[in-house]
Structure formats: structure tokens, C-alpha cells
């Protein structure tokens, strides 16, 4: 079976991510994944297309250079905020001598979308439709798998219609036009996220999928394998960082690093860590050193997380499915890795809570971060594009200057010389912290990892992933779940060096 390649791009409020996947039948192999700090995006909306295009351009150029390809098109996720849901019924007449087919169901879905009367067609656009139930003239409340194959004169469907801002999609188009990359399809993000994170039994038995992202926190409720409710609020990890910045009067970058290094919910559960104190000294040495107790930092974070979760729990109650969530809550997104976050949500909600990592539906070699919670949307885009048989998204790059052509042979990239000989090609490059009781955080000085013992400082932000450092060959270990603390020491000190308190 012929290979094809899918390029998926996730436009997040805090970070943007690009993945290239090789598809061969049902096999999905991720050959490239990178993240970068986003720009021009607020609450999942692209508000400045030119700014949003800059980090995307760097990601695209890096991917093209490393893989020796040219990216021509991609699949993209839609914004998750300011999306409202409405109900819609659609009906079509059928030949009673024939059975209902999958094509009939898809035709009914299309009819529901095309015939839905928007309040303001100039400013609104349909993001998607999810079938809730089907019926014939005699049978009601049937799911899609049951209705297919039944003979009937009429087919009726009840749908959830999701509506968003047309300007949001136009801003994405403008950014990609600037990059000269076509958009094959825009996906309603909550649907693709569920494909990557939830199991079939969870969606059948009832589950609330909470995407705790940088600028938006959303909840999608599944029951009977159908998305029954969706809602979002414009608060997330960026709000937590902003609280830390305001309390400490420091920069956003330093506040983000401190959050990742020492941030946790439930200060009473921190044990000895709650006694630690972070000291922040000024770069010029003239300002007094600031002291930030870890317990106080945790209290600040906990208040904000509670505020966000109270709003999400209200949406779960409003959905009417609060008592049907047998599988409780699945928590994903970048903030899901915050220490004690899942336990805190379990305590205030009463539901069982698990952290939602991308399911093992693909293979990946050398793609660092692709199995973390903040990569779930990107993986969901790849899975959805594979199911929809999205066509080839890349082209091989002809190296005319040296008379070689780069060819993807299914296992890697090889250079083919004019006389037909192949040269070896280039393949593709994969618990709470326990610091000392009081630790000074200088804003200047040598970037010496020995200042902090190895393992104390977690990864700070996706920016450092753009410049991977040289490391020894990693030993075999179980699938990583924890952040590699030492990798971010230098990044933290760079922020401290630039900080002027």
C-alpha cells in the first residue's frame, strides 16, 4: 500500500505544534514533532495573523530542512472558545425497498449543516455537527450503528450544531496564505482530542474530557459513544502564570519557569516541600532579594485552579449528564501535568480522575514530547486526518545543485544520484521535586547546572525544545511520563539573567 504523509498543526494560546506523520494503511508513524511558543493567539483565537505566522514559519522551515521535504498543505484545529451549541433536526425520504446506508446518514448530516439557519451568516460559521440520535417512522432514539441496515421510508436525525466566529477561521486562512501552505481541512478540536485520549469504553459509559490548556479550558461530555455537551471558558495555564507574575512582580517568562519548577496544587499535601523558600535576586544587586515560599505559591495556584474547575463543574451539571459519568473525568492539556492537579480535581468534584495522555495508536521515534498531554490535540488531528484519508501533504525536495534527489522510501530518506546509485540518507531524529530547604535564584552569573542538583528543576517551556542539546544515548526505560527536570536549568537561568527586579 502506498505511503502518504499528513501534516498536522495545533494552534494553541501558549504554544503551537507541528507534526508530520507517515500513513500506511492502518499504521501511523510519527516522523517529526516540534513545539514553539505561540504569538498572535489569544484564548485559542488567532487575532494577529502576521504574528501567528512567525513561529509557524520557523516550525515549517525546521521540518522541511530536517526531513528534506516541502510542506504544501496541512490539517488545522479550530478555536475552542466562543463556540455555542444548538439543536437541529433533519429528515430525508428513502426507498422503503432498500436499507439505510452509511452514505444516507452522511447525506443527512450534510443536510443538517447546510440547512441550519445562522443568526448572522456574515459573522458566524458552522464548526461541526454531531448526531445525537436517529429514528425511522416506527423506531426512535437509535444510534448510527443501529440505524444503518434498517429499511425505512424516512430517516430522521437529531444533531448538536456547533457554531463559531467566521473571523476566527478567516484569520487562520490569512496566516497560512502568508506561509504559502494550503489548509486541507479544519477540524472541530474537541472531537479530534477525544479520538486521541479517550477509550471506547469511556465514551460509551460516560466521561467528561477536560482540556486544561494555556488560554482556554474546555469540557466535552461523552455518553453512549456520542458527544452530548461542550463548553469552554477563557482561563487556563496563562491565568495561573499571570497570578504568579502579579504576586511576585516578575516577568512572564520567569513566572512560567517558577510555576513549572515549583508549582503545585493542595499546599497541605506538599509535606516538606511546603517549607521551601525561593529567593529571587535582582540583576544589579541594588534591589532587595525577594522571597517566595513554595507553600504560598501553591496557595495562589490552588485558588485559580479551583475557580476554573468550579466553572467547568457547573457546565457538567448543566449538561444533564452529571450522574451518568461512570468513568469520571479525564484531564488533559498542558496544565494537566501540574503537581497534585488531578488529585485536587478529584477532591472537589467527587469523580474519579485520570490524566489523559495520547493513546498508543501510533509509533514515534525521536519525537520528544509527543506522548505528553499537551500533544494530544496534534495527535488527534493526525488520527482524524488518517480516518478521512487526507491526501499527501508534502513534496520531496530536488537537490539540483549537487545533482541528487531526496526520496522517501518508507523507512527513511535517501539521496539518489543521477547514475541510479543510492547514498545513505538522513533519517529522522524521543514526582514532585525535592529541592533544598532554601535556594537562592540569582539573576546573573554562570549557567552552571551544579548550582542546582540534577533533577530539581523541571522543563520550563516549549521554547527549549527548538534547540535540543547533545546528550548521551538514552537508556531503555518505560514510556516517559515525568518532565526531564535538568533539561530546563539553563533556560531558567537565562530568564533570571534577563530579569530586572
Summarize the structure in words.
This protein is an alpha/beta fold. The chain has a domain at 84-167: Dna Ligase, domain 1 (2-Layer Sandwich), CATH 3.30.1490. The protein contains twelve helices and 25 strands. It has helices at 49-67, 102-115, 144-147, 166-179, 189-197, 200-205, 237-248, 252-262, 294-319, 341-349, 376-387, 489-498, and strands at 4-11, 15-24, 27-37, 41-42, 45-46, 69-71, 73-77, 84-93, 124-135, 154-165, 182-187, 207-212, 217-223, 226-233, 277-280, 290-293, 329-332, 353-355, 363-364, 394-396, 398-399, 404-408, 413-416, 422-423, 438-441. The chain has a six-stranded mixed sheet, sandwiched between helices. A hairpin with a 4-residue loop joins strand 21 (398-399) and strand 22. Helix 7 (237-248) packs antiparallel against helix 9. The N and C termini lie far apart (60 Å). Mean pLDDT is 82; it is low at 397-490.
Note the main attributes of this structure.
501 residues, alpha/beta, Dna Ligase, domain 1, 6-stranded mixed sheet, 5-stranded mixed sheet, 12 helices, 25 strands, 28% strand
Query: What is the percentage of strand-forming residues?
Result: 25-35%
CATH topology-level name of one domain: Dna Ligase, domain 1
What is the CA-based Rg, rounded? 25 Å
User: So, CATH architecture of one domain?
Assistant: 2-Layer Sandwich
Strand-helix topology:
Blueprint (H helix, E strand, L loop, with lengths): L3 E8 L3 E10 L2 E11 L3 E2 L2 E2 L2 H19 L1 E3 L1 E5 L6 E10 L8 H14 L8 E12 L8 H4 L6 E12 H14 L2 E6 L1 H9 L2 H6 L1 E6 L4 E7 L2 E8 L3 H12 L3 H11 L14 E4 L9 E4 H26 L9 E4 L8 H9 L3 E3 L7 E2 L11 H12 L6 E3 L1 E2 L4 E5 L4 E4 L5 E2 L14 E4 L47 H10 L3
Parallel strand pairs: 1-7, 3-19, 7-11, 12-17, 15-25, 17-18
Antiparallel strand pairs: 1-2, 2-3, 4-5, 6-20, 8-10, 9-10, 12-13, 13-14, 15-16, 21-22, 22-23, 23-24
Helix pairs in contact: 1-4, 5-11, 7-8, 7-9, 8-12, 9-10
Amino acid at each position: 500500500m502506498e505511503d502518504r504523509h499528513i501534516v498536522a498543526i495545533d494552534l494553541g494560546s501558549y504554544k503551537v505544534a507541528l507534526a508530520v506523520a507517515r500513513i500506511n494503511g492502518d499504521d501511523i508513524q510519527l516522523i517529526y514533532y516540534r513545539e514553539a511558543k505561540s504569538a498572535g493567539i489569544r484564548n485559542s483565537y488567532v487575532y494577529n495573523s502576521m504574528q501567528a505566522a512567525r513561529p509557524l514559519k520557523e516550525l515549517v522551515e525546521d521540518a522541511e530542512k530536517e526531513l528534506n521535504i516541502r510542506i504544501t498543505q496541512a490539517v488545522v484545529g479550530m478555536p475552542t472558545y466562543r463556540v455555542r451549541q444548538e439543536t437541529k433536526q433533519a429528515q430525508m425520504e428513502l426507498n422503503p425497498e432498500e436499507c439505510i446506508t452509511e452514505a444516507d446518514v452522511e447525506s443527512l448530516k450534510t443536510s443538517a449543516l447546510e440547512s441550519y439557519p445562522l443568526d448572522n451568516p456574515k459573522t458566524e460559521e458552522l464548526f461541526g455537527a454531531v448526531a445525537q440520535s436517529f429514528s425511522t417512522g416506527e423506531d426512535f432514539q437509535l444510534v448510527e450503528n443501529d440505524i444503518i441496515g434498517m429499511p425505512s421510508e424516512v430517516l430522521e436525525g437529531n444533531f448538536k450544531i456547533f457554531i463559531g466566529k467566521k473571523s476566527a477561521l478567516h484569520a487562520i486562512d490569512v496566516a497560512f496564505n502568508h506561509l504559502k501552505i494550503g489548509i486541507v481541512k479544519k477540524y472541530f478540536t474537541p472531537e479530534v482530542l477525544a479520538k486521541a485520549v479517550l477509550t471506547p469504553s469511556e465514551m460509551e459509559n460516560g466521561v467528561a474530557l477536560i482540556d486544561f490548556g494555556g488560554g482556554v479550558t474546555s469540557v466535552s461530555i461523552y455518553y453512549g459513544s456520542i458527544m452530548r455537551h461542550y463548553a469552554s471558558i477563557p482561563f487556563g495555564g496563562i491565568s495561573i502564570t499571570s497570578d504568579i507574575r502579579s504576586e511576585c512582580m516578575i516577568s512572564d517568562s520567569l513566572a512560567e519557569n517558577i510555576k513549572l519548577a515549583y508549582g503545585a496544587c493542595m499546599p497541605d499535601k506538599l509535606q516538606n516541600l511546603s517549607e521551601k523558600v525561593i529567593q529571587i535576586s535582582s540583576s544589579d544587586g541594588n534591589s532587595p532579594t525577594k522571597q517566595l515560599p513554595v507553600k504560598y505559591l501553591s496557595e495562589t495556584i490552588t485558588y485559580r485552579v479551583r475557580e476554573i474547575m468550579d466553572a467547568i463543574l457547573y457546565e457538567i451539571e448543566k449538561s444533564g449528564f452529571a450522574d451518568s459519568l461512570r468513568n469520571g473525568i479525564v484531564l488533559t492539556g498542558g496544565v494537566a501535568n501540574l503537581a497534585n492537579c488531578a488529585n485536587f480535581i478529584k477532591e472537589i468534584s467527587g469523580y474519579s480522575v485520570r490524566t489523559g495522555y495520547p493513546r498508543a495508536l501510533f509509533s514515534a521515534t525521536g519525537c520528544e514530547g509527543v506522548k505528553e498531554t499537551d500533544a494530544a490535540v496534534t495527535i488527534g488531528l493526525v488520527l482524524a486526518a488518517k480516518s478521512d484519508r487526507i491526501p499527501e501533504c508534502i513534496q520531496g525536495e530536488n537537490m539540483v545543485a549537487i545533482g541528487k534527489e531526496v526520496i522517501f522510501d518508507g523507512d527513511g530518506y535517501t539521496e539518489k544520484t543521477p547514475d541510479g546509485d543510492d547514498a545513505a540518507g538522513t533519517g529522522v531524529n524521543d514526582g514532585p521535586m525535592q529541592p533544598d530547604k532554601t535556594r537562592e535564584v540569582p539573576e546573573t552569573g554562570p549557567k552552571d547546572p551544579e548550582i542546582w542538583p540534577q533533577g530539581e528543576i523541571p522543563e520550563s517551556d516549549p521554547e527549549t525544545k527548538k534547540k535540543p542539546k547533545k546528550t548521551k544515548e538514552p537508556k531503555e526505560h518505560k514510556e516517559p511520563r515525568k518532565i526531564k527536570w535538568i533539561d530546563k536549568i539553563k533556560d531558567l537561568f537565562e530568564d533570571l539573567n534577563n530579569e530586572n527586579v
